[in-house]
């Protein structure tokens, strides 16, 4: 595990939800593909917890809607839509949606989908 500072604390030591203002993504925007399950879900939550505004997508509309409802209840700024990123036309729609939501500003891209 990576160490920083005096070597006594890990980078993940703030995993309990209290980031102690050590890390901040306030004002940043992020797109996470495949954000409703597993690692993608964890990435969305961590980015949002650190202050980023996140957009995510999933092929399953019911899953994305359930996750969006949960994230809203946690106070996270997360938007999303159903999208199959293996489809060029759906990727184009996704990019249009993300560009509209973020006013053309995207700082972080996390692609967790496979073709």
Automatic annotation (TrEMBL):
A Pfam short name: adh_short
Keyword match NADP: yes
Keywords: NADP, Oxidoreductase
Residue span of region Disordered: 1-21
SUPFAM superfamilies per UniProt: NAD(P)-binding Rossmann-fold domains
GO-annotated molecular function: oxidoreductase activity
Keyword Oxidoreductase included in the entry's annotation: yes
Family: Belongs to the short-chain dehydrogenases/reductases (SDR) family. SDR65C subfamily.
The protein's name in its UniProt record: Tropinone reductase I
Organism from which the protein derives: Corymbia citriodora subsp. variegata
